[in-house]
Amino acid sequence: MNSDISIVALSLQIALVATAVTLPLGMFVAWLLVRKQFPGKFALDVIVSLPLALPPVVIGYALLWVVGTNGWIGQLSESIFGSTLAFTWLAAALAAAIVSLPLVVRSFTAALAGVDPRLEVAARGLGCGPVRTFLTITLPLAYRGVIAGVLLGFVRALSEFGATIVVAGNIPGRTQTVPSAIFTRISAGDTDAAWRLALVSVVLGIVALAIHNWLLKRSANGIDANQPNGRAG
Amino acid sequence: MITFDIQLSCPGFSLDVAGEFGDGITAVFGPSGAGKSTLLNCIAGSIRPDSGSTAIDDDPLFASDRQVWVAPERRRIGTVYQDGVLFPHLSVFGNIEFGWELISESDRRFDPFELAEFFGLGELLDRKPSEISGGERQRVAIARALATSPRLLLLDEPLGSLDAARRGSILNYLKRVHTEFEIPMIYVSHSISEVVSIASKAMLLREGKVESFDRPSALLLGAAVAGGDIDAFENILDGVIGESTGQLTTVRVGDVDISTRHQNKKPGDRVVVSLGANQIILGATQPENLSARNIFKGRVSEVWSSHEMIFVEVDIGQKFIVELTENALNELGISVGNDVFLVFKSSSVDVFDA
């Protein structure tokens, strides 16, 4: 049981760090995709979405190249910390972030697209700078979709297995997450212990998705409708 | 004073306009797609023109040859949009206060509470924009723009989404804002009636170019010819309720007492009167034995004629614009300086709260 708790704790830690990366990055990418016209927009959309279409193992393998001894991130971290990121919990967090980014960007894109851009133009005209406009107008109007996207990204990061096991391994106490621990236990025939963690995954997933769907349903129902005009007249 | 010289081209549309607007109310007028709103957006800074310049007094906002570009939030120009574009997550007061909070104390000319009172919003401060009427939303939008102490107020079809009764009210508020707060305004509209009622000068745009820049009434024919979405002309005038007798109520407009249908209003109430230019009969001699309750003697002050339409402006102590056919004009031999009589029914006059 003690090891179960530390496995869940490490998984949560990795998923939280991954979310801390995808939240600002995903917001910036979604904002670019929704509000800006620029050359390469289509390519950016494809690249960000690519992890959805690739086997996670491929992403893990690619990441291993980048963070390993030969990759530029690997060399950078080796010169600073004296070791590469490969087979550390940070590598697991990075893998989880990349795999969950497309889901986060998609949710954020939908949330931002639901905010009437004229509200932002109006705010600017009232003396509000672009960053403050985003924080006081856009974000408060998109917050349900944003929180939903964060939750979706978080559960995706929690359940990440394929990329993580390639780039971070399955080292108990260091990089072993809930999915990789379940895999180990199934391989070892320890079905009771595997079921315990599987149950934890199911509960976490249900809670997060229930909140996610509730938030999106509320905005779809038009409560706090994000329209400059409610009824006519 | 605002000066601009703006060139902008996008697929299927180009704008090339220059002008100098004074401190009064200037209208920018023309059919849909003429570039009215685009011009306004260029002045507000939400669209950057390809080339040209814009300045308020001697303060440059945009000068392509000197790489000057002032961001919209630093221009101190207030904008009121057609449907308000209020912030839906903020209360009425939150909307009014939004821009006020962002300017330095020394620049604040108005108190947000006083603005709310001025626009009759005192009871609605805690409501959300979705919980108030269209006319109320538009008043909030004007108050919100004024709260930033703007150097210039841009009005982009501010009456466009309102019904006739509320249009008169907002128009009246805008006139009061101009006289009491002395803020120059640019008023964009496709309704020549509104333009004649509120503006001292008007620019007629068509297909991204300036067609004319003159007194608003001088644009009547051009407006009529531009056709399409331009309504029949209405004389929109401020009035004050007078006596009510039987089925009639008198409304004082300028120096004239007009008979209207009975109004449930007290003497002294401020109203807006609307009378279609095609609802007025013009007589060369004193008409007798008519059922019409309004017969006034006046003098023709202007005639605009083309093959499509003829408008005559008659001063009876208040200027009214009358629409005539070519036959009528020729038969009556009407020209500037003639004494004529205006005749219209009390039921032709619409009276709205101001």
> End-to-end distance of chain A, in Å?
63 Å
Judged by helices, strands and strand pairing, the structural class of chain A is: mainly alpha
Give the averaged pLDDT of chain A, no decimals.
88
Walk across the major sheet of chain B and give the strand order. 7-8-9-3-10-11
Distance between the termini of chain B: 29 Å
Radius of gyration of chain B: 22 Å
Largest interface, C-beta within 8 A: A-B, 26 and 35 residues
% residues in beta strands of chain B: 35-45%
Number of separate domains of chain B: 2
Low-pLDDT windows of residues of chain B: none
Alpha plus pi helix count of chain A: 10
Write structural notes for this entry.
The complex is a heterodimer of chains A (233) and B (354). Chain A has 233 residues and is mostly helical. Helices cover 76% and strands 0% of the residues of chain A. Chain A is globular. Chain B has 354 residues and is α+β, with helices and mostly antiparallel strands. Chain B folds into 2 domains: 229 residues, Rossmann fold (3-Layer(aba) Sandwich), CATH 3.40.50; 119 residues, OB fold (Dihydrolipoamide Acetyltransferase, E2P), CATH 2.40.50. In chain B, strands 7-8-9-3-10-11 form a 6-stranded mixed β-sheet, sandwiched between helices. In chain B, α4 packs parallel to α5. The longest helix of chain B has 18 residues. Chain B is globular and about 70 Å long. At the A-B interface, α6 and α7 of A face β7 and α4 of B.
